[in-house]
Amino acid sequence: MSQQSGADGLRIAGKRFDVTTGKLAKPGGEGTRLSPEAAAVLELMADDPENTVPLDRVAARIGRDAGLDDVESVVSEIRRALGPQGHAALRTVGEKGYALYPDPTATGAPDRTFKMVVHSIAILSFVVVSGVGYCQLQADSGARAQVTPVTTPSH
């Protein structure tokens, strides 16, 4: 178990994860009981914090010949249970796998908001410089954005 564990369970993003019950809760508060698959994946990730756990290891922990859809579903369940810090705590690492940051606010943890802002500024600068008059900016929580030119409305 990782350095973030103790007698009262594993601490992740301000919540306590009890590996014996699969429950993720705020200290002294009600919690969410994860599915057995999600609890197993969270425990796997906690064993190697801040390092990429490959997709095949995550899928193997889920079992039953899990595919990418199964992995994404389980990761989404964990992120929802972690709350607002879910994406910062359980980070997608390219197409390689996932990394768990038990304390996403600690120094050295990736600041996804900052990356998102920098990326958005870069894209908007491109739009202005390239002369695209009207565009639609779509961004997701993975610090990726996409600019889609839209036809100029007629006057």
TrEMBL record:
Domain of life where this protein originates: Bacteria
GO function terms (MF aspect): DNA binding
InterPro entries, alphabetized: Sig_transdc_resp-reg_C-effctor, WH-like_DNA-bd_sf
Transmembrane segments: none
Residues making up the signal peptide according to the UniProt record: none
GO BP annotation list: regulation of DNA-templated transcription
The name this protein goes by in its record: OmpR/PhoB-type domain-containing protein
Organism (species): Pacificitalea manganoxidans
